[in-house]
Amino acid sequence: MIGRTMTDATGPSIRDYTPKDAAAVLALNQSNVPEVGTLDLPRLEKLIGQADWVPVVELGGEIVGFAILLVEGTDYASTNYGWFQDRHERFYYVDRIALGPGARGQGLGQTLYREAVRRASEAGRSVLCAEVNTIPPNEPSLRFHERFGFTETTRRCPYGDENEVAMLEKSIP
Length: 173
Fold this sequence. Notes:
Blueprint: E1 13-16, H1 22-31, H2 41-50, E2 55-59, E3 62-71, H3 79-87, E4 92-99, H4 108-122, E5 127-135, H5 139-147, E6 151-156, E7 164-171
Parallel strand pairs: 4-5
Antiparallel strand pairs: 1-2, 2-3, 3-4, 5-7, 6-7
């Protein structure tokens, strides 16, 4: 939905990332560590350049959420992304999704994921992939992904024993 904003008259809007969003996205990302990996500006800019879609969620003129999604064949040096790359010829990968505390529980994550599923389906991708921390635990995210229809395929320790992730997949019709 490049160049299009999803909104209603009373709620948040979801639009494409622009470079002027960098400071807010970085602050929001860092406020969600360790649920998401840390980012600095050079790494964010590189990741944005590799991404297929980077939506931001605005509420009252403030960015309260964002996601970064990639497709297969991206030169992205993530061991988790690489694991999905080895399993699937075509896929849509949620590198990260972050919402501010006041934006949680309002259905924004589901809205972002429904749009990701739509995009993946239109492009002929049959699976939406993500990973969620189990060590340190991220129980709210695991519950969210389960409710959204993701299935855990395995658990991995990509960065040593102090970190474990559940590898999740959702089939796309």
